[in-house]
Write a structure and sequence with these properties.
The protein is of the alpha/beta class. It has 2 domains: about 60 residues, 2-Layer Sandwich (60s Ribosomal Protein L30, Chain: A); about 160 residues, SPOUT methyltransferase, trefoil knot domain (Alpha/beta knot, 3-Layer(aba) Sandwich), CATH 3.40.1280. Helices cover about 30% and strands about 20% of the residues. The chain has 8 helices and 11 strands. The strands form 2 sheets. A 7-stranded parallel β-sheet has the order 7-6-5-10-8-11-9. Strands 1-4-2-3 form a 4-stranded mixed β-sheet. Strand 6, helix 5 and strand 7 form a beta-alpha-beta unit. The radius of gyration is 19 Å and the shape is elongated.
Amino acid sequence: MSELIYGFNVVTAAVESGYSLLNVRVTADNLDMIKLLKEKRIPFSLVSKEELNRLVPLCQGIMAEIAEFRTYSLNQVAEPKGSPEAKRSLLIVLDGLEDPHNLGAILRTAEASGSGGIIYPKNRSVKLNSTVAKVSTGSIFNVKCVEVVNIVATLKKLKDLGYWVVGADAFGKVDYNRMKYDFPTVLVIGSEGKGISRLVLEECDLVVRIPMVGKINSLNASVSAGILIYQIKKDQWE
């Protein structure tokens, strides 16, 4: 089953990442996109704005299909133990994340920060889809995503490779900014409603919290991820 993608940045990123586009539909006034499609010799159909908006509202005058979103193996994102790249490696594990908008936002932050990849479970988790692609503004095509059967087993493998597993939890014992993340890091972000599951929490070498002074006692998953990702990458590059 093919996957729908839409929006100028999303389709452009797909083309630049070497994806084959199918059933490309574009409006006549989308000159930059038409130029790109012609340069890449990608067949397309011209359609009216009204027709395209009936199919996908707010699609910026371009929509297409791809066979599927690429996924990678764990070995393709984890750096070898002791390698020069390992110290600056950050992998992000999503434990039961369900909101595609959160996944899209985390992908966008992961790409901007130079993170090594996103890992998520095959079951009970949001999948890569058109909404995720749109929210990520095309980052979905530039960040390596790994779908695994068992998060706990995956964390054990990463720990064997020298990674430290850092969980983000409102009840963590350490403020995130009191740590120095100068080591290969796996950042675990829990689900929107339940946080990190017990078995996954048991695999964490460290559980950190983001201190808050307002009346709201929690942050959106993608906001928490963004704060922690940039703190970790800052320390890794110092």
